[in-house]
Amino acid sequence: MKKMADVLDVVDQNTVKVMLYKHKKCSGCGSCNKHMHPGSVVNALNPVGAQKGDMVDVNVIKKFSFKEFLVGYVLPVTSFFAGLLLGGMLFPGMNGGGFAVVFAFLLLAVSISVNVRYKRSFKPEYSVTITKRVAPAEPRL
Length: 141
Hints:
Blueprint: E1 2-12, E2 15-20, E3 41-45, E4 55-62, H1 66-90, H2 96-121, E5 126-135
Antiparallel strand pairs: 1-2, 1-4, 2-3, 4-5
């Protein structure tokens, strides 16, 4: 996601501290990334050599989280198939298939509730990189 930012401070030669702006077309719904809202102050990679006071374009990329992948995708799928397997073992017989499917969806619902609770407390990591300088720093009058 591309955003505008102001360079607040130069941390070292390759890193600066920036404050993000709201995108022009942003309606403030918060769906893009709730942890990187306008006004966030973050460290950014500085391959263009931006200086303090510059206005820059930054590229914000959410880093891959293996734990989030496990909770969001692997847990629901495995819980559904484990529910089918356990339901078949717990309810053998002619009507056992229906109970196994109900048990599978019950475990799926439990895994989705775990996923929702995890997402509320999860704080993703972002990679912020300056792509270009929009306006160079000018002396303030």
